[in-house]
Design brief:
- The complex is a heterodimer of chains A (186) and B (203).
- Chain A contains eight helices and six strands; from the N terminus they run H-E-H-E-H-E-H-H-E-H-E-H-E-H.
- A six-stranded parallel β-sheet of chain A has the order 2-1-3-4-6-5, with helices on both faces.
- Chain A has a domain of 122 residues: Rossmann fold.
- In chain A, strand 1, helix 2 and strand 2 form a beta-alpha-beta unit.
- Chain A has 186 residues and is of the alpha/beta class.
- The longest helix of chain B is centred in the last third of the chain and has 12 residues.
- Chain B contains eight helices and eight strands; from the N terminus they run αβαβαβααβββαβαβα.
- Helix content of chain B is 36%, strand content 16%.
- In chain B, helix 2 links the parallel strand 1 and strand 2.
- Classes of the chains: A alpha/beta (186), B alpha/beta (203).
Chain lengths: 186, 203
C-alpha cells in the first residue's frame, strides 16, 4: 500500500510525495509560519514541518485562533499558512467574513478533506457539504487537488495569487491526492 | 496562588477609556496595540489614533491571537492586546497557545465588566463566577495579575515592558460604553497598521 496511502513517494518514480511538495513550496514562497489543528492525513506533513528549522510551527486550540495568528503575522511582515481538516474549516465562516476578506489578508489554508470518497463518519460527510458553499458564497478562491502532477503548480500559483491579490485561498486536499483516512476493518 | 493573583473582588472598578489612555500615554517605542471587537477598540480609537493601532471590526475573541501573530513576526517590538471579558471567553484556548510559545514581547489586558455591554449589558456566563486571571495563570501565563487600581495598572504595564514572558493584566471596569466609534474601514485600518509597523511603504 506504500504507493497508494499518499504518504510516500511512488516507488521508483522519482516523484515527490504531496507533503514534500507542500513543504518545499511553502519554503520557496517564504511562508515561514505554520499553525494547525491536526488531522491524521496531515501527520507526516506536520512532523516534517516541525523538523525543519525554516518554519515556526505550532498547534492552535481552534482553527479561527490559527487564522487570527497568521493574520497578525502577515500584518507584521511574516507569511503564514493554516492546516486543518474539513470539520475545522466549518468553524471559519465568521472569521473569513469579518477579518480575512474585509481586511484583505492573504490567508493560505490547506484543508485535508474528510467526508467523501470512503467516509465512515456521517457527521464528517455532512459537514463536508458545507465547505464549498461557504467558500463560494464568500467568493474565496479554492481548488480541490486530486492529482499529484498538478499539485505543485496549484500550490505555488495559489500562494503567489493570494499574496499579490491580498485575498484568501483554500487548497482542499482530496483523498485522491492524499489517500485520505480509511476505516480499518478488523 | 501568589500575592499578585489577588482575586477580582479586591480590585477597584475602573474605566476602560481612562485605562486605555493611561496605557497609550506610556508607549514611547512605537509599540503595537491590538484593540478587540466593540468598546475595547472604540476606546483605543478614542484615546487617539496611532499608526501602530489595529482595530478589530469583527472576529470576536481574536485580539490575543492576532497580537500573538504580530509578536512572532516582530520579536523586537512590544505588542499589547486589549480584549473584553466576553471576547476572551470565546477563545480561552489561545491563552495556552501563548503560554506554550512564550513570546517575550506580548502583554495582554482583559477589560472585565462581567457584561456584554454593547449588546444590552447582559451578564456573561462567567460573571461573578470565573476568575479570568486565575484562568490565565492556570493556562500557563504565570505572571498574570489583577490590577488593584490605576496606579497598579501603570506599574504592571511598566513591569510588562521589560518582562521575559508574556503576561495578562486583568482590570475590572465599569459598565460605560466606549467613548467614540472607530471608523469602520477595514482596508485602511490594516494598511495604516502595516505602514505603522514598517512592513509597507506608502504608495
Amino acid at each position: 500500500m506504500a504507493a497508494t496511502d499518499g504518504q510516500t513517494s511512488p516507488i521508483g518514480s522519482g516523484e515527490k510525495a504531496w507533503h514534500e511538495i507542500v513543504l518545499q513550496t511553502l519554503k520557496r514562497n517564504d511562508v515561514r509560519l505554520v499553525t494547525y489543528v491536526p488531522d491524521r492525513v496531515l501527520t507526516r506533513l506536520i512532523r516534517e514541518i516541525h523538523a525543519d528549522p525554516f518554519f515556526t510551527a505550532f498547534p492552535a486550540a481552534r482553527e479561527e485562533e490559527a487564522v487570527g495568528i497568521v493574520s497578525g503575522a502577515w500584518m507584521g511582515g511574516m507569511r503564514g499558512a493554516v492546516l486543518m481538516q474539513t470539520s475545522g474549516f466549518a468553524t471559519l465562516a465568521n472569521v473569513l467574513a469579518s477579518l480575512a476578506i474585509p481586511y484583505q489578508i492573504p490567508l493560505i489554508m490547506f484543508v485535508s478533506e474528510r467526508g467523501t470518497l470512503g467516509e465512515f463518519n456521517y457527521g464528517q460527510s455532512l459537514v463536508c457539504r458545507t465547505m464549498r458553499p461557504v467558500l463560494d458564497s464568500l467568493a474565496v478562491e479554492h481548488h480541490t487537488v486530486t492529482r499529484l502532477d498538478e499539485f505543485e503548480f496549484i500550490v505555488d500559483r495559489s500562494i503567489k495569487q493570494a499574496v499579490t491579490t491580498q485575498a484568501p485561498v483554500a487548497l482542499i486536499l482530496s483523498p485522491l491526492l492524499t489517500g485520505g483516512k480509511v476505516l480499518q476493518m478488523s | 496562588m501568589n500575592k499578585a493573583n489577588l482575586p477580582a473582588r479586591n480590585t477597584k472598578v475602573m474605566n476602560r477609556f481612562d485605562l486605555t489612555s493611561r496605557l497609550i500615554a506610556r508607549l514611547k517605542n512605537e509599540e503595537a496595540v491590538i484593540g478587540g471587537i466593540g468598546n475595547t477598540n472604540f476606546d483605543l480609537w478614542a484615546a487617539g489614533h496611532r499608526p501602530q493601532n489595529f482595530y478589530m471590526l469583527g472576529s470576536m475573541g481574536l485580539a490575543f491571537p492576532i497580537a500573538l501573530g504580530v509578536a512572532l513576526a516582530q520579536p523586537n517590538r512590544r505588542v499589547f492586546a486589549l480584549e473584553g471579558d466576553g471576547s476572551l471567553l470565546m477563545q480561552l484556548g489561545c491563552l495556552s497557545t501563548i503560554a506554550t510559545l512564550k513570546p517575550k514581547n506580548l502583554t495582554m489586558v482583559v477589560m472585565d465588566n462581567g457584561i456584554y455591554q454593547i449588546t444590552g449589558a447582559q451578564p456573561t456566563p462567567a460573571a461573578g463566577v470565573a476568575d479570568l486571571v486565575a484562568i490565565a495563570v492556570s493556562s500557563g501565563l504565570i505572571d498574570s495579575a489583577w490590577a488593584a487600581d490605576e496606579e497598579d495598572f501603570e506599574r504592571l504595564i511598566d513591569q510588562s515592558l521589560s518582562a521575559s514572558e508574556p503576561m495578562l493584566i486583568g482590570v475590572r471596569i465599569d459598565d460605560k460604553p466606549g467613548t467614540a466609534t472607530t471608523r469602520r474601514d477595514p482596508v485602511q485600518i490594516r494598511e495604516r497598521f502595516m505602514l505603522g509597523l514598517g512592513v509597507r511603504e506608502p504608495l
